[in-house]
Amino acid sequence: MLNKNFSIIIYFLSFLFLFNFSLNAKIVENVVINGNTRVSDETILIYGKIDIKKNLDEEKINDILKNLNSTNFFEDIKVEIKNNKLVINLKEYPVINQIIIQGEPSNKISKEIKKNLKLKENNSFIKSHLSSDIETIKQIYSSLGYNFSSIETKINKVDNDNFDLLIEITRGNKTKISSINFIGDKKLKDRKLRDIIASEEDKFWKVISRNTNFNQRLIDLDIRLLTNYYKSIGYYDVIINSKTAEINNENNINLTYSIEAGTRFTIDRITTNVDPVFDNKLFFSLKKSYDKLIGEYYSPFAIKKILENIDEIIEKNNLQFVEHNVEENVKDKTISVKFNIYEGERQLVERINIKGNNITDESVIRGELILDEGDPFTNLGLDKSIAKLKSRRIFKNVSSVVTPGSESNLKIIDINVIEMPTGEISAGAGIGTNGGSFEARVSENNWLGEGKKLDFVLATDSESLSGKINYTDPNYNFMGNSINYFVSSTSNDKPDQGYENTLYSLGINTSFEQYRNIFTNLGLSASYDDLRTVDSATDNLKKQSGEFSELSGRYGFLFDNRNRAFMPTRGSIISFNQSLPIFADRQAIENTFNATKYKSFSDDVVGASKFHISAINGIGDDDVRLSKRKSLSSRRLRGFEKGKIGPIDGLDHIGGNYTAALNFEATLPNLLPETTKTDIALFLDFANVWGVDYDSTIDDSNKIRSSTGVAANWLSPVGPLSFTFATNISKANTDKTESFNFNLGTTF
């Protein structure tokens, strides 16, 4: 009985539901559309997804409204059902005929503004977009240093449905950074902090620097740079509490950064947890890296270095589907680190899509990728691919998006690139005790969209004039190998060395990474040398005159593990190069070895030791021609004139077959107050030039020269200025010395 009654209730409720639906749903026999002049009825029916002869309830009518609103064709939409007709009353958005930018003299900036607007020419005018577009324009001008710009908009009616949008811009004056200050528990001197950040105080000699303009994005970058640096020296929980910008009387900005450095942490323990599916012995080599870090200040960059070593082991042993992570346990003033290495999900690359390359050929991008379609997918391979693309210096930004493929074990990779202007024009000039210099360069880093580099260089100083054309294909065989072609011409006038010459050269070079941080280079070059001795030269020296042709091969190795290329504080750079004659009027073998070691003893002292040795020797009875003989620059032996030590023939310093130099230097970056903008370094130099093969009677000055002194680098109002004050410890009687040297140079 109970079941029967329950069935009756269900039947009754169903009847009520169907009855109610029938009351609210109506069958539409026809559609009437009013108010549309540009958009056709057919387009409205398609975009609205409207089906006649079917029941239309309230939900379906709302769907029609949503569909039509999403088109951005209509300012107002009303939908109702009358007499089995669906009536749609519309008010179309007016159309923007053209967008006119007024008050901006630069066509480039005007195009950039239009590019970033939501409102577009020949599209609907949506009022809600106008306010956001005004904010976009203000952000663009703020990034250029115009923080008080005003934007006005006007509408000029063309006809009932079309109008021109006028955007009137008053840029105002650029907002400059008057001062940069640091407060709080900062631990570091202001001078050091100013070197870390990108923003710069406005000074009259920084007329070409954009970093003196107040720019919110630049300030945000400063915060990241400061945070990263503090973390890199052990301040694990550093907080940049606030940043303030006060407007002074000149409508410029005084910046203040508040820093709480916190506690400086050291690493007390490092362990590795390896999944049993992998051979634990493969990772034993990591212990050396661990031992070096125990007791040292914590640095995320040191941790990153170990992760890179793990990736190197994975790559070297062809381990697939390997994942890793880091666990850090903070206790008191110490941090324990554990690296977990485990088997990840087995996934393959189904497809790689390249997006954003309007100029660059797709093959250039694919040639840099570690991963290929069908390969096992790894985050390491993807990260290295992105890093290689970024290193090409032809993209403003490179990013990737990984999405699921057609099956659960497949991945689709979207590589998104934003191309950058790749043409460069630069010039530099300098003046010093050895005369003046000038260099001009024109280069294109993405020639014909193929990622190749074309370089024109013109340089001159007191003794020479040279021009050079370089053409480089950075990935000619899609294996990371670069190849370079060059043509050069150099004219030298060296009366103090007894000769003048004109040298023409052409050649080809290739380089590639042999192992981690170890690079190999190979080269082949041909040259023609028109060598002429001066009238005052000795008879033996005049025998050096002549025309010389040469074809030679070159190979070399480079090891570089410096923490950074510019102003490194640790690491080494070591190189060896040898040049061998294939054919030459005078055959000689040339060898060069250089080694530099950097070490930071404290925040206030950075030490560097440098060793250099070079040799050139004739083969058989051939002497080394005068223009190829060796000399030392004033950088390797301070306190002596450039090229004015070593063997002398008559009055001429002829150079030698051998050179060697040993330099010790201690930089004291915080010795002077930050306001002086001066770095001080102490140095001790040992060097010599010796060996004469064409005349055994000439004194080859086989005597070690040495000097010590102080070097200063000053960021002067007119450009960077370097001074050297040196005193000779030992020298030969024929040497030409100088106790003071300066160089002033700038780039524009």
Attribute tags:
748 residues; alpha+beta; Ubiquitin-like (UB roll); 6 domains; 16-stranded antiparallel β-barrel
What does this structure look like?
With 748 residues, the chain is an alpha+beta fold. The radius of gyration is 36 Å and the shape is elongated.
Runs in which pLDDT lies below 50 for 5 or more consecutive residues are 6-23
State the major sheet: 16 strands, antiparallel, barrel
Tally of DSSP β-strands? 35
Strand content: over 45%
Assign the CATH topology of the largest domain: Porin
Name the average pLDDT: 83
Roughly how many Å is the radius of gyration?
36 Å
CATH architecture of the largest domain: Beta Barrel
State the end-to-end CA separation.
100 Å
Q: What is the name of the CATH class of the largest domain?
A: Mainly Beta
Helical stretch tally: 12
Output the structural class.
Answer: alpha+beta
Which outline best applies?
A: elongated
Main sheet: strand order: 18-19-20-21-22-23-24-25-26-27-28-31-32-33-34-35
Write the CATH homologous superfamily of the largest domain.
membrane protein fhac: a member of the omp85/tpsb transporter family
Number of domains: 6
User: Helix fraction?
Assistant: 10-25%
